[in-house]
Amino acid sequence: MTPAVAAPPRRTRRGSGRATLADVARVAGVSAQTVSRVLNSPATVPEATVNHVRAAIQQVGYVPNRLAGGLASGRSRLVAALVPAIASPVFLETLEALTQTLAAHGYQLMLGESGYDDADEIELLENLISRGPDGIVLTRVLESEAARQRLARSGIPVVESWDLTATPVDMLIGFSHEAVGARVAQAMHERGVRCPALITGNDPRAQRRRQGYAEELARLGLLVSAGADAMARLPTAVVNAPAPMGSGRRALADLLQRHPDIDGVFCSTDMLALGALIEAREHGIAVPDQLAVVGFGDHVLAADTSPALTTIRIDGRRIGTQAAEWIVQRAAGHAVSARVQDIGFELIVRASA
Fold it and tell me: What is the pTM of this model?
């Protein structure tokens, strides 16, 4: 039976005036080691004890000195994560799972925005490394060899995600963007599309989906040329990433003006696809009878649009959970097996295609 939280002693604060870990232990009626485990690795402590100790923490007003604890243990209990755009909905599941899994092990997430430009990659990573996180999670793979070497030399566990590469810096969980593009091309072909088009952001991963899409369309006989010529011949509207819904509307209007016969469009994000659906309606174009529309990301609104949006679903929660578990294992000095995981993707077929 968990002891009741005792009334705090009259003088629980010393020196600096701050309540101490020993004060929490005394009030909770447990050892200082148990309080430390609740703070640093709550997943290893029974839930009733965790709740009991947290009630004592609230009662005495204890605030852990993370800086002092980090200096003593050599661990900051912070994990840094970088996303291209914090406002982008595509990474929300990953960040939520990352935050929850890390918190269960006593870690906190420090979130940063990298943008889509690789030019400042080294400076950004230097700033992260200088803060001494116990791990770094990137929703990308590093392109710059100098940045890769700097991060490898830091000794900090690193998880690259939302992509694949044959040469990861450390650990990697993701999927092939080229394969995504190829699968959408196959879906267009199965649908009977004869004049496919593309609305895409200008970020590197969207461009790899563009490449896979164009090459597979060419293989299926829907484009007259292959390779780079296939990408050049594919009716395409390029927008700046991250792109809002309005960019999808304007991009489809531009495509229809230049290529009025298009009957299928792949959009590099669901936001662009939602804009394309609105613009198609404005032009009196029936979706999917006259124009098939496919997105990427399975946005929370995708299933509720009219018509419901066909899209590519990525298991972002699995990415975040696995990345967090890898970081925690490595920070504790344990080896990680199968450091590279290709989780694939799923084509969610709905009414728009």
Answer: 0.78
Cα–Cα nearest to 269, from 242, 307, 233, 300: 242
Residue 67 scores a pLDDT above 50: no
43 CB-near residues (< 8 Å, 6+ apart): 104, 105
Give the pLDDT band (50/70/90) at residue 89. confident
> H-helix or E-strand containing 138?
strand 135-138
Average pLDDT, the chain: 87
Range with lowest mean pLDDT among 129-133, 168-172, 209-213, 330-334: 129-133
Give me the helices (H) in the chain, please: 21-28, 32-40, 47-60, 66-73, 92-104, 121-130, 145-154, 177-191, 204-219, 227-233, 245-258, 270-282, 316-331
Q: Which amino acid is it at 329?
A: Q
264-267 and 292-296 as β-strands: parallel, antiparallel, unpaired? Answer: parallel
- How far apart CA 20 and CA 33 sit, in angstroms, is 13
Pairing assessment for the beta strands 264-267 and 78-83 based on DSSP bridges: unpaired
Strand partners, 18: 14
Spatial CA neighbour of 94 closest among 27, 196, 163, 25: 163
| Residue 136 C-alpha from the chain's centroid | 13
- Cβ atoms of residues 80 and 133 within 8 Å: yes
Tell me the residue type at 41: S
- How much is the average pLDDT of 262-287? 97
